[in-house]
Design goal:
Radius of gyration of chain A: 31 Å
Oligomer: heterodimer
Number of domains of chain B: 2
CATH architecture of the largest domain in chain A: Orthogonal Bundle
Largest sheet of chain A: 5 strands, antiparallel
Main location (chain A): membrane
Structural class of chain A: alpha+beta
Number of strands of chain A: 5
Order of helices and strands of chain A: HHHEEEHEEHHHHHHHH
Domain ABC transmembrane type-1 (chain A): 181-370
Protein name (chain A): Oligopeptide transport system permease protein OppC
Distance between the termini of chain A: 7 Å
Radius of gyration of chain B: 25 Å
Largest interface: A-B, 44 and 65 residues
Number of domains of chain A: 2
Helix content of chain B: 25-40%
Shape of chain A: elongated
Membrane topology (chain A): Multi-pass membrane protein
Keywords (chain A): Cell inner membrane, Cell membrane, Membrane, Peptide transport, Protein transport, Transmembrane, Transmembrane helix, Transport
């Protein structure tokens, strides 16, 4: 509504505060976006996810592919493993395997000790039975008597923290989720970027040139649309083998079709705008019109579509991984983790819960941000 | 207005403000209005004066960031701050509104009968068949031909004038006490305008409701309203009886508005002046697919064999109603649409040149469009907009030189060059039109096609643009093809007139003769509708 705009109020040089620099539509949109709490919160959440995906695996306490055989499928807990009540039996079990008699086991903070005795000489190499376990390290035998038949076995307890628990192979779920976020985000962003470049270029050219060119270009899109996605991916996998790059190429290759149609539609309306006709009347060539007028003006809706495309790509990747066509073990993605979690849902709920929560939060944030962007870029709200 | 009568709508201290990114903007500053039963009141002002926002606030239709305070009483019912439900009992039934754009204010998905029946069923609780009967009655009342058949048409099957009649029928459905008409005739052709105004006057006489007429067009006010409120920047600066306001305006602003009619005329150029642009038997046809598989396609001729010769420093005014093909003619002359026939520029035949061949000539043949909001790319700064042509035609210019040309260009059209880094949406309509003119003039063209350059602007701004165009013509020896449906502006600008109808020339000649002694009936009707200043007489209707 023109009445609400102060600069439109009066004819003549209505110069407001600073005449030299104006505020572009993008800056306006940015200001509107900053007012939208949900969008700002989502942006912060996303930033946290990006930081977690990029730097998380570097600072995580465990490598994402390290296997802790002692801690297979342990539930999520903020308390460090091993638990106090499991130290004793584990210690005893390990020493039994060393064929020594164990006396009273005393646990003292981060070390555990017990008197040991044997009919024959105690082989000092039996400390390996303890060191081999994930729970203990630096085992030593002290206070040996002269006959080397009695002594005190002391070992330090290795405290391992698994805040999200471990999976069926004894790998830390937190580390795996961090690497999964990295992979999923990378695929989402790369696939969206690919469909952005392809779709905007193709759609703008097709819409602007129009006529027969448009017909042919759009029929090609229709043909590609009719290819079943999964079939297409399987074909790619058969030809090129499984590969990280292939996944985002596959997703990008199918998602740009939507983008091309959206951009073409935008272009068709823009083409009839008077500013495009004015550019033509100035003698600006086709490329100039596309570059200066069509593409910048389609970017608003395109940006919104991209924010909605990223979660779509992530979901598709999850689907592919779920079907076993995605990333390969021990590399993982949120989709792989969720599929594993689903298999273990009854016995180990945390395996499903945490990756699913991570994916859900990420998708929510992306969708909210997309909505916020759409509101911010919507000229009707001006 | 008798002193003891009670106003049907009393507005006291109405304030409207909008929360925007730049802080609150005051649109209306505590104004008072009184509407008596059965009277016609005009609220006049330029765009941005707050006249529409006042009515929107009363009707509870403000945009979501708007807030209204103060008081507006319909009979004794306070309307400001009333809940949606209770407000709906008044608006749409007792107070109704018709809008400027008959194209967009009807829902394209529903038949008009259903849209008119909506308020009947909703407010009056009528049954469907009773509502349908009443619809036909209403359509007959607003003078829509064949109402029994038209009731089942979709909005796109009706012309602009007919749609506006449907809107009026909708507004009348529940016998309103007040009809608010927000620029109801601005988007219509002059002859249709006159019919709609006549209809409104006639309806008012028969139904006795009050009409609040919001407009920027003083010509309409003078002929139509009993009382006038003049608004400027959210304040009522003057109010009084129409005759008193027009004969003896007290406020400078009112005086300025009354004087804003474009004036002056242009003497014809000498016969010896060289012909710059010549069109001979120009035809522009659009292929139409006929219904039915085997009937093939036919051709619709938007421009049907028109010839004209534009001499140096001449201004040819092309007038006609919407759909007459005048814009298409302008574009065909510049070869922006494909046409047949010959177009000569200077001594060259340009009608067979392709895009590449036309490019060097584009510099000399420029066009300015009607819509100052649509003709500037919203993502480019003003400086980029006006120097775009230089990128094509003088690619060797450095950035600094282009900037200098931008500064000169803006000065040339009377804008502050410091504004070249701002974006088009920060400018008013008139300023944008100046920018569009600067974009064309910066290339130093010889011929300019002006396609309704003033139609979307306020009268006072129109006058400024007309003066600017005149000055530029003098300074740069320009020749204009001036396309407009507004005869007052055409008269002020042109020395030769072409009257078009359905793609053909009805009449052409020197401006003075066309306006003073129109020969053809169509031209007479046009001139009569545009220049008439007598009050609208109801007796003339039906």
């Amino acid at each position: 509504m023109s009445q609400s705009d102060p600069t439109i109020a009066e004819e003549g040089p209505a110069v407001t505060a600073d005449a030299t620099t104006g505020r572009s539509l993008w800056q306006d949109a940015w200001i509107r976006l900053r007012r939208n709490r949900a969008a700002v919160a989502s942006a912060v959440v996303l930033l946290v996810f990006v930081v977690a995906g990029v730097f998380g695996p570097m600072v995580a306490p465990h490598p994402y592919d390290a296997i802790y055989t002692q801690y297979v499928r342990v539930p999520a807990s903020l308390e460090a493993y091993p638990r106090a009540d499991t130290i004793e039996p584990a210690f005893e079990r390990a020493l039994k395997r060393a064929r020594v008699d164990v006396g009273k086991v005393t646990v003292d903070g981060s070390s555990v000790s017990a008197p040991i005795s044997k009919d024959e000489k105690i082989d000092p190499r039996i400390v390996r039975y303890l060191d081999r376990s994930d729970i203990f390290h630096d085992a030593t035998i002290t206070d040996l008597n002269d006959a080397v038949t009695q002594g005190v076995m002391t070992a330090a307890v290795t405290r391992e923290l698994f805040p999200f628990g471990t999976d069926a192979n004894g790998r830390d779920l937190l580390s795996r989720i961090l690497i999964g976020v990295r992979v999923s985000l990378a695929i989402g962003v790369l696939a969206s970027f690919m469909s952005l470049v392809l779709g905007v270029g193709y759609g703008a050219v097709s819409g602007y040139l129009g006529g027969r060119v448009d017909d042919v270009m759009m029929r090609i899109i229709d043909i590609l649309y009719s290819l079943p996605f999964i079939f297409f991916v399987i074909l790619l996998v058969v030809f090129f083998g499984r590969n990280f790059v292939l996944i985002f190429i596959a997703i990008g290759c199918t998602e740009w079709l939507d983008m091309a149609r959206i951009v073409r539609g935008q272009t068709l309306t823009l083409k009839r705008q008077e500013f495009v006709q004015a550019a033509e009347a100035l003698g600006v060539g086709d490329m100039g019109v596309l570059k200066r007028h069509i593409i910048p003006n389609t970017l608003g809706p395109v940006m919104v579509f991209v924010t909605l495309l990223v979660p779509k790509a992530i979901l598709l990747e999850s689907l592919l991984s779920f079907l076993g066509l995605g990333v390969q073990e021990p590399m993982t993605s949120l989709g792989v983790l969720i599929s594993e979690g689903a298999a273990n849902m009854r016995s180990a709920t945390w395996l499903l819960l945490f990756p699913a929560a991570a994916l859900t939060i990420m998708l929510f944030a992306l969708n909210f941000l997309g909505d916020g962007l759409r509101d911010a870029l919507d000229p009707k709200d001006r | 207005m008798s002193e003891n009568a009670k106003p049907i709508l009393a507005v006291r201290g109405l304030d409207v403000r909008f929360e925007t990114n730049d802080g609150p903007v005051q649109a209306v500053n505590g104004i008072d209005l009184d509407i008596m039963p059965g009277e016609t009141v005009a609220v006049v002002g330029e765009s941005g004066s707050g006249k529409s926002q006042t009515m929107m606030a009363i009707m509870g239709l403000l945009a979501s960031n708007g807030r209204a305070t103060g008081s507006a009483k319909y009979r004794d019912q306070e309307l400001i701050g009333l809940g949606e439900k209770r407000l709906n009992r008044v608006r749409g039934a007792k107070m109704t509104m018709i809008f400027q754009e008959p194209m967009t204010s009807l829902d394209p998905l529903y038949r008009i009968g259903r849209q008119i029946a909506e308020p009947l069923v909703h407010h009056a609780g009528m049954g469907r068949s009773a509502a349908r009967k009443r619809c036909i009655e209403l359509l007959r009342l607003v003078g829509l031909p064949e109402p029994e058949r038209r009731i089942d048409s979709f909005p796109h099957e009706l012309s602009g004038g007919q749609r506006q009649r449907v809107m009026i029928a909708m507004a009348l459905a529940n016998d309103p006490d007040i009809l608010i008409a927000d620029e109801p005739t601005t988007a219509l052709d002059v002859t249709i305008q006159a019919q709609i105004l006549e209809l409104l006057a006639d309806l008012q006489k028969r139904l006795g409701m009050a009409i609040v007429f919001i407009t920027h067009d003083l010509g309409v006010v003078r002929r139509f309203a009993e009382r006038v409120y003049v608004m400027k920047l959210g304040d009522v600066v003057e109010e009084g009886r129409t005759a008193a306001i027009f004969d003896d305006p007290t406020h400078d602003y009112t005086r300025m508005l009354i004087k804003a009619e474009p004036s002056g005329s242009k003497p014809p150029v000498e016969e010896s002046s060289p012909v710059l642009l010549e069109g001979k038997d120009v035809v522009v046809g659009f292929r139409q697919e006929n219904a039915g598989w085997f009937s093939g396609s036919s051709e619709f001729r938007a421009v049907d064999g028109i010839s004209l010769r534009l001499r140096r420093k001449q201004t040819i005014g092309v007038v006609g109603e919407s759909g007459s093909g005048k814009s298409t003619l302008g574009r065909a002359l510049l070869r922006l649409v494909h046409g047949r026939g010959t177009v000569r520029y200077g001594d060259r035949d340009i009608s067979s040149l392709d895009k590449r061949g036309m490019r060097p000539l584009r510099k000399e043949l420029q066009i300015v469009f009607q819509d100052p909001f649509g003709s500037l790319s919203p993502r480019m700064t003003v400086g980029q907009v006006i120097t775009e042509g230089l990128l094509v035609h003088e690619p060797d210019l450095s950035r600094r030189e282009r900037d200098k040309r931008a500064i000169d260009g803006l000065k040339d059209v009377g804008l502050d060059p410091a504004m070249r880094n701002r974006y088009p949406h920060e400018f008013s309509g008139g300023q944008r039109q100046r920018i569009a003119i600067a974009r064309a003039v910066i290339l130093k063209p010889k011929v300019m096609v002006l396609d309704e350059p003033t139609s979307a602007l306020d009268r006072s701004v129109q006058k400024q643009i007309v003066e600017l165009l005149r000055r530029l013509q003098e300074e740069h020896d320009l020749s204009y093809v001036f396309i407009s449906h507004d005869l007052a502006v055409v008269r002020a600008m042109s020395d030769y007139i072409l009257v078009m109808k359905d793609g053909k020339v009805v009449e052409e000649g020197v401006a003075e003769r066309i306006f003073d002694h129109p020969e053809k009936e169509y031209t007479q009707a046009l001139v009569q509708a545009a220049m008439d200043t007598d009050p609208i007489t109801v007796s003339a209707a039906r």
